[in-house]
Design brief:
It is a single chain. With about 280 residues, this protein is mainly alpha-helical. The protein folds into three domains: about 60 residues, Multidrug-efflux Transporter Regulator, Chain: A, Domain 2 (Orthogonal Bundle), CATH 1.10.1660.10; about 80 residues; about 100 residues, no CATH class. Helices cover about 60% and strands about 5% of the residues. The strands form two sheets. Strands 3-5-4 form a three-stranded antiparallel β-sheet. A two-stranded antiparallel sheet has the order 1-2. The longest helix has 25 residues. It is globular. InterPro entries: DUF6397.
């Protein structure tokens, strides 16, 4: 009997290890495969908060729990409904077809801030191509059909006459908002806001070099699809920083508020950085 128990023990230990492994968080590539999504679809789902990240690995890489993947799979219409929510269209020609208008009208609507990009890429001609959620374009067409034809509203004509292009600011607003939704920690929130501010604004808001080191360490990486090739990165790089004074002022005010909470947290714990 004792021998039989000893012979069974390794099998039981192996089963326990296998069971623990099956519950271990998955890397992004494995998680995408589990959900049957392409890499871009999965990245967009994570960006939009449709698939929530779990605790990061020791090296900082994103991980996804089995429970989260099962939650996503259990949603109605999976996976077709999820794919529809993350479907993107690139550029004015494709966007105009989805919207049911002409490319020039689509570009005008986007430049005047009626349509918010969800991402971007740089094509082989080093031109910036904006990406839009197809579902949002269809919703806009149903909600604002009058804007798809006819004369432009007076406020749009004023913006166009001034050479305005609100697409970069609209993209940054969405990008920052999505990042802030992922965390309640004031240091991490401060790092998100600092990441879109010019260096001079960060220096003025954060005179303490040690605090700036913390914010730099917590800064979010460039968004999915941001080019790595230097020539293309030079085209997309300016998108990562706020430009117009009112936009800079808005993010600076948000940073000041986040820092107040972060410093208060540090005073209570005796440590800088997220707790």
């Amino acid at each position: 009997m004792e021998r039989e128990l000893c012979e069974r023990a390794p099998v039981g230990a192996a089963a326990l290890r296998e069971d623990a492994g099956s519950r271990a968080p998955l890397a992004g590539i494995r998680a995408a495969a589990e959900l049957g999504l392409r890499r871009g679809e999965f990245a967009r789902a994570v960006q939009l908060g449709l698939v929530r990240q779990g605790p990061r690995a020791a090296g900082g890489a994103a991980r996804f729990t089995r429970a989260e993947l099962e939650r996503v799979k259990a949603e109605r219409g999976f996976p077709e409904a999820l794919r529809a929510r993350v479907e993107t269209v690139a550029g004015a020609d494709h966007g105009a077809r989805v919207l049911g208008t002409v490319p020039t009208r689509f570009t005008r609507l986007a430049r005047c801030g009626h349509l918010s990009p969800v991402g971007y890429r740089v094509n082989r001609y080093r031109a910036l191509v904006w990406l839009y959620l197809a579902a949002e374009l269809r919703e806009f067409a149903a909600r604002r059909p009058a804007l798809l034809s006819g004369a432009a509203p007076p406020e749009d004509r004023e913006l166009l006459a001034a050479g305005a292009d609100l697409r970069p600011g609209r993209w940054r607003e969405r990008h920052v908002s999505l990042l802030l939704r992922r965390t309640a920690d004031p240091w991490e929130r401060a790092a998100v806001l600092a990441s879109v501010l010019p260096e001079g604004e960060v220096l003025a808001a954060v005179p303490d070099p040690a605090e700036r080191i913390v914010l730099a360490a917590l800064a979010p990486p460039p968004p999915y699809g941001h080019p790595q090739v230097p020539a293309a990165a030079a085209v997309a790089g300016p998108l990562l920083l706020a430009g117009p004074p009112e936009e800079v002022g808005r993010y600076r005010a948000g940073l000041d508020l986040a820092l107040t909470g972060a410093r208060g947290q540090s005073n209570s714990t005796g440590e800088r950085g997220p707790t």
